[in-house]
């Protein structure tokens, strides 16, 4: 496999990686995410010291411009992260290193890595859902990121609310979208303490699982994913969450035909396998795909 440099752009840190795959990671360096100018300069200082890479892959927090024909390709677009809206990422690094650049969302990068080396090995069609600081969905169809006008933003769909649930939600755009109901900050706001301190039988989990199940309901109805892989701190750190989501998904879909197609739900809705490595390994795959 060709040697690739990758940069996973995260909300609190960026991970720079040089390698060809999980068995051949030559260097990993982390850079704190501060201002765009400071962060990109620090990333360039790392990459400037590397030799021999023939492509660059960049999975980034979003939203981002992924249409290669559009002027905002490779930029962070209207993010809520202060100072980062409109930041040029990929064009800047492409010009500096003069190599092909693959650029996509962080969840698409993680989805590619889980499909190649993780919890969805061998599957060409999958969804990767992160439940953490935010809620994001990366969709892969026929082995490639599924996109058109732009990338999916399915963390912001509006679920039908459970009867009697009056929590207004936390999303600054929509209130009670899935991110506004099920992200780590939303759980903490609803329950008064973080999810990792909440009892497994706390009623908050019923609402959280229901919102996530409705996201799964929609993913199933797209007809695309053969598996849904869950990553992110909330999903990974809450062992009772996915069993609840599977049960709520069955209730939500009812006897509709697609449910039979899904087979064993324990194998359809699964936890991620690569942990923190999914992002950097996804960066390598995005770079290799750009060649
Ligand atoms: Zn929202």
Q: How does this structure look, described?
A:
The protein starts with a strand and ends with a helix. Helix 3 crosses helix 11 and helix 6 (204-222) crosses helix 8 (241-253). It has two domains: 4-109 and 276-290, ATPase, nucleotide binding domain (Nucleotidyltransferase, domain 5); 120-272, 2-Layer Sandwich (Nucleotidyltransferase, domain 5). The radius of gyration is 19 Å and the shape is globular. The chain has a five-stranded mixed sheet, with helices on both faces. A five-stranded mixed sheet has the order 8-7-6-9-10, with helices on both faces. It is α/β, with parallel strands linked by helices. The protein is built from eleven helices and ten strands. It binds zinc ion (ZN). Residues 156, 171, 173-174, 177, 179-180 line the site of zinc ion. The site of zinc ion has 7 residues, from helix 4.
Outline the fold blueprint:
Layout: E1 4-9, E2 13-21, E3 24-32, H1 36-48, E4 55-60, H2 90-97, E5 101-105, H3 106-117, E6 126-131, E7 135-141, E8 144-145, H4 178-182, H5 184-191, H6 204-222, E9 228-231, H7 233-237, H8 241-253, H9 258-262, H10 265-268, E10 269-271, H11 278-289
Parallel strand pairs: 1-4, 4-5, 6-9, 9-10
Antiparallel strand pairs: 1-2, 2-3, 6-7, 7-8
Helix pairs in contact: 3-11, 6-8
């Amino acid at each position: 496999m060709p040697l690739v440099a990758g940069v996973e752009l995260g909300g609190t840190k960026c991970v720079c990686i040089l390698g060809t795959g999980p068995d051949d990671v030559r260097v990993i360096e982390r850079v704190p995410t501060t201002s765009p100018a400071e962060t990109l300069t620090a990333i360039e200082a790392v990459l400037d010291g590397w030799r021999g890479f023939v492509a660059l892959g960049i999975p980034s927090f979003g939203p981002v411009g992924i249409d290669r024909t559009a002027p905002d390709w490779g930029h962070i677009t209207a993010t809520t992260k202060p100072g980062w809206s409109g930041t040029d990422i990929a064009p800047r690094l492409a010009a500096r290193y003069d190599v092909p650049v693959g650029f996509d969302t962080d969840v698409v990068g993680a989805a590619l890595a889980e499909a190649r080396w993780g919890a969805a090995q061998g599957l060409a069609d999958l969804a990767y859902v992160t439940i953490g600081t935010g809620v994001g969905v990366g969709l892969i169809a026929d082995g490639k990121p599924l996109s058109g006008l732009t990338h999916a933003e399915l963390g912001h769909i509006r679920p039908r609310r459970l009867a009697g649930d009056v929590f207004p939600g936390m999303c600054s755009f929509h209130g009670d979208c899935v991110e506004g109901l099920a992200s780590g900050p939303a759980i903490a706001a609803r329950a008064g303490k973080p999810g990792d301190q909440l009892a497994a039988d706390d009623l908050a989990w019923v609402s959280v699982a229901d919102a996530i199940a409705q996201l799964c309901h929609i993913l199933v109805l797209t007809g695309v994913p053969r598996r849904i892989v869950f990553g992110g701190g909330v999903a990974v750190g809450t062992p009772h969450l996915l069993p609840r989501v599977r049960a709520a998904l069955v209730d939500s879909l009812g006897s509709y035909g697609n449910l039979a197609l899904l087979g064993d739900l324990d194998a359809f809705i699964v936890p991620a396998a690569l942990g923190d490595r999914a992002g950097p390994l996804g960066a390598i795959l995005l770079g290799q795909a750009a060649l």
